[in-house]
Amino acid sequence: MKSRLKQGAATGLAVSLTLLLSACSLMQANTTTVDQGVAMQSNQPTPRPLRPANQKVVVGLSIDTLLEERWQKDRDLFKAAVEKLGASIEVQAANGDDAKQLSQAENLISQGVDVLVVVPHNAEVASAIVQKAHQSGIKVISYDRLIVNSDVDLYISFDNEKAGELQAKAIVSKVPKGNYVLIEGADTDNNAHMFKKGQMNILKPFVERGDITIVYDQATKEWKPANALANMELALRANRNNVQAVVAANDATAGGVIQALAAQSMAGKIPVSGQDAELAAAQRIVEGTQTMTVYKPIRKLAETAAELAVKMAKGENVHADKKVNNKKIDVPSILLDPIAVDRTNMDATIIADGFHTHEDVYRNVKGTQITK
After folding, report:
1. What pLDDT is stored for residue 366 in this prediction?
2. Domain with 75 in it: what CATH number?
3. Which site among 128, 184, 200, 342 is 20 to 30 Å from 51 CA-CA?
4. For residue 308, what are the domain limits?
5. Mind giving me the DSSP string for 310-351?
6. Could you tell me which CDD domains the record lists for this protein (predicted)?
7. Which residues of the chain have pLDDT under 70?
């Protein structure tokens, strides 16, 4: 009798285990995978039911700020691309407030978005957004700026180390010897560290030979032009204006740098880099006060991100051909190529792409075009 009871119990346990494994397999089949050509890492969020096929996918966008021209363009392009794909979108902008961004992300999660796209203000703090999204079974895409120390599902950006290299190459080609000032980005933004890494890839050999001396190197809090202005003013005072070149991390900081140089009648005499191809920067380039900018075709970034976000929301496979370590995991990543732009290729890049109009770029310049 005992033998029959034991046999019956064992049979029941086997059936239960079979049912449990079948359920797990079904749950796994309903989750999105990122095709990396390698085994998946255990960073997947809790599975959640997918929306019915006849119900619109909802994409959530949590964006650091809309106070800068660059991010307004990203928002508009991304929104248009998402809607063109038949999905709807909810956008929240924190305007540089970490607590507000976390609260807004929680709001998007509670609304039941199918995927969350995040442009983090603070790369470390935003890891809490990833954790909360995963607890609700929502995948997270890190847009342009990498969320560090997190299990973020996908990172899409430009090759930011290469962007830094393009900046330094442009300035070194103008001034291969002399005193350099580095006006870097916000220390809380992982991209700023990548830009600087790229810059130093180019500058380091010149520094080691003694051709270039970095006389001032400072991060710009919050990426604000006013802080870049204050940093540049301090750099000029500390070196009695004995500065031959400036590597500025983006166009906003370049604007502050050029304002400080203008106050010393040095604008246009000192090469200054930039990034983001803002209209004001494009105008300064053709006017001769800024040397270059790094143009990142954000239409391609926004449209690619929208396509991937909708695919992930639907549970479809997404292919990422690269990985970027975020201090916790190797994040599946898609990195697009940035482009160095100066006076000589302004028309062939920024204007040809429709990023800015010829009329707007050359508004303050006599004639229709500046040539090399």
Report:
1. 74
2. 3.40.50.2300
3. 128
4. 58-158+297-336
5. HHHHTT--EE--EEEE-SSSEEEEEEEPPEEE-GGGTIIIII
6. PBP1_ABC_xylose_binding (cd19991)
7. 1-53, 367-372
